[in-house]
Amino acid sequence: MILKEAPSLPYEGYFWIIDDKVVGITSEVPRYNYTYSLNGKTHKNTWSKFIDDYLVDDKKVEWDYFPRGRVMVDPEYDFDGKFEEYSCIVFLDKCLNNEHYKQMIVDYYNLDLKTIHRVKWSMLSERAGIDHYTCHNCRKQGDVDD
Ligand SMILES: [Zn+2]
Predict the structure, then answer these.
(1) Which residue of 12, 44, 75, 94 is surrounded by the most CB atoms within 10 Å?
(2) Measuring CA to CA, how many Å separate 127 from each of 94, 116, 130?
(3) 3-state secondary structure at position 139
(4) Domain membership of residue 66 as a residue range
(5) What is the pLDDT of residues 93-121, one digit of tens each?
(6) What is the count of structural domains for the chain?
(7) pTM for this model (two decimals)
(8) Is there a domain that residue 135 lies in?
């Protein structure tokens, strides 16, 4: 008898960190027949689902108020088309760049797998100088630095 255990699969998607919790959109990434299912989905056009649940001083806030980020996972194959491993990169707000939040993100998206050798963490806003993953707090600090 051959017992087959279903492989543990990672998720990709995007998230906010609100009140020390991950509030996220997830999409499972299979080893084969992967298609990117989050096409056209953004923090901006998803925020309406959450806006009423995460008020600040009883008021609605914009989609870019809370710190946020995005997890991208891709299956990689050898020359014969056999699955080898996942590549994984996480873009995140610079105020989330510490072990506490990274661990929350790893747990939420199931990234602690043998098939993911390394998670790359990228603070896109710092490198590119554009307002990409920048929350209201980081923007305030930016103003002071300038
Ligand atoms: Zn921030």
Answers:
(1) 12
(2) 11, 24, 8
(3) helix
(4) 11-145
(5) 999 999 999 999 999 999 999 999 999 99
(6) 1
(7) 0.88
(8) yes
63 neighbors 86 (Cβ within 8 angstroms): no
Structural tokens at position 64: 């870019």
At residue 146, the pLDDT reads: 41
Q: For residue 46, report the distance from its CA to the centre of ligand 1, in Å.
A: 19
Q: Phi/psi of residue 116, each to 5°? A: -120, 105
Distance from the Cα of residue 90 to its chain's centroid: 6
* Centroid of ligand 1 to alpha carbon of 35 (angstroms): 31
- Among 34-38, 97-101, 106-110, 126-130, the range scoring the smallest mean pLDDT is 126-130
Average pLDDT over the chain reads: 90
- Asked if the structure places residue 30 within a domain, the reply is yes
Surrounding residues of ion ligand 1, Cβ less than 5 A? 67, 93, 95, 135, 137-138
